[in-house]
Amino acid sequence: MDPATSTRPPPHRLRRRLVQGGEGLLLAVLSVSANIVLLVLSVLSLGFTVLGVGLLAFPAVTAVVRHVAGLNRRIAGRWTGREVPSPYRPAPERTTVWARYRWVVTDPATWRDLLWLLTSIPVGLVLGLLPVCLVVYGLEGLLGVPVLLWALDAWYGYGAVWPADTLGKALLALPQGALILLFGGVVGELIHRTHAGFIRALLAPTRAAALHRRVRQLTESRSEAVDAQAAELRRIERDLHDGAQARLVALSMSIGLAEELMSRDPAAARRLMAEAREASGQALGELRDLVRGIHPPVLAERGLAGAIRALALKLPLPVEVDVELPGRPLAPVESAVYFTAAELLANVAKHSSARNAWVRLRHGDGRLVMVVGDDGAGGADPAGGTGLRGIERRLAAFDGTMFVASPPGGPTTVTMELPCELSSPKTSPCSGTD
Amino acid sequence: MRVVIAEDLALLRDGLTRLLQAFDFEVVAAVDNGPALLPALVEHRPDVAVVDVRLPPTFTDEGLQAAIEARTRMPGLPVLVLSQHVEQLYARELLADRSGAIGYLLKDRVSNVGQFVDAVRRVATGGTVMDPEVIAELLANRSGAEPLHALTAREREVLGLMAEGRSNAAIAGRLFVTEKAVSKHINSIFSKLGMPPSEDDNRRVLAVLAYLNA
Q1: A67 touches chain B (CB under 8 A)
Q2: What's this model's pTM, rounded to 2 decimal places?
Q3: ipTM, 2 decimals?
Q4: Is B197 a residue whose pLDDT tops 90?
Q5: How far is A278 from chain B (nearest CA, A)?
Q6: Partner of B129 for a Cys bridge, out of A200, A364, A367, B103, CB 3.0 to 4.6 A?
Q7: Contact A294, A272 (CB under 8 A)
Q8: What is the mean pLDDT of residues B143-155?
Q9: Average model confidence (pLDDT) for chain A?
Q10: Strand partners, A368
Q11: A106-153 pLDDT, tens digit each
Q12: β-strand partners of B50
């Protein structure tokens, strides 16, 4: 497994199996309790739409159905290690009763949910219970021999032996139990996968719905990227116009004046020249800052590894930098990752009151994963800070995601992930000139 | 003094050449790309090399790498590195061999001709000159760091100026104190950083290094 994506060690096989069994049992119990009730309520509230009550009731029932379906998706996702995405259309902006009702009724996912409720009652029950039953029955064969011996010559048996009326027949339970237990162990995983497949078939977005979602996502991220780019260009134009450009005009004025004064008042000319030199220094400083904001020179020179190291050196706390990249990402991706790291580290320095921080960057399976962590106070919230929101927008343009884990009291880790290919280091293009 | 210059922009290369010639330096070679730099240094063995960080063909840190490589071949070769921007990272790499005779300055510093020529001379004579921007960054961030927290504010100031490559007299002038007071501060810095009073020349470099690595 790629070291970057495994944030915790894989749980023990047996424990994993037990947890899976428990979850299957839970789904089985839900399918004959909650799912039946929800199905009935759905049908009733839909029927009562003609009386008006359903307009309110159906969306309410649907909300609960979606919660239960969401639980099924999460569990199925865990079983297969592949997330089951949620298919629903986004909630309407206007929140009138009619708008909500329309939103729920026109979403095909609502109807697929109902179909799932109906079919899950037998399917969920059987598939959820089967692995547990096999294991329990196997254990009964292994541990239940004393009971069988006590019940010899009577009504009780085990497996293929009914009734177990002699000592020999009773002891046959042992190998049978072992076989059933073994079978349960082997088949359990398969049953859970089948169960997950059933859930995915009805609760994951259909191809059309997934495409719809994708188009919506791309439209949003594209318009954000275009906006951000336009704003950036405006900022650069303004900075050049009001800063360096104005200083250079003043500079050439001073030099011109000094030229005039050279013969008449050498002392004044000298003063002017000194001023001009100072102004040129300021103009250079402004240009340097501007360049750093557009594309940091150290990033062009050293790539992500060097640039993040340089960032870490500027922080007032020790930052452990661990970057292993076999090549360089495309320039726009590199720049996005760099500015993300810069923003996150700036947050660490400003808000976390951490004593140590670390950055980890890896590439694997066509994805770039960066984790920035600190041992500070925690409580970072993407909803609260404009900085974190800005990072999300920046990453969205590359289909990247960010996940913040920051419980109060810390520690904080921010994981950034985006799809990207690396160029081989030999073919990395020269970027920019000095 | 004999100088080798490496700078890819013709305008700047000619400007540097003229400037240094005006101050009685002999420019023995002026190259415009990375691969040509090392042979030029090996051939001419100059008293000091003035090198731009970014050079063709890669336009990355070719000049810096060539300078570091040259110093492994010719230990102690004085190199003054010029750059459009300065990074602590590069300053550390330049000082990694702990032998001094290194300068690392922003290109803008050329405009203050007197100070710039002074810096070239100090590097040529084995001194260490760090750009005030690198020093300022260090002061802002690292003043609380381990080996330096024993220093007083004044001593830290003196160490900063020392890292910029200033002589005791210049430091005294800047801080409006006597030269004797400065050397007292410097001795106290050396003892606080645990540097024995034997190898006097290198101790300034080591102190600056301690400063950079703090």
Answers
A1: no
A2: 0.69
A3: 0.79
A4: no
A5: 9
A6: B103
A7: no
A8: 70
A9: 85
A10: A363, A418
A11: 888 999 999 999 999 999 999 999 988 998 888 888 887 777 777 766
A12: B5, B80
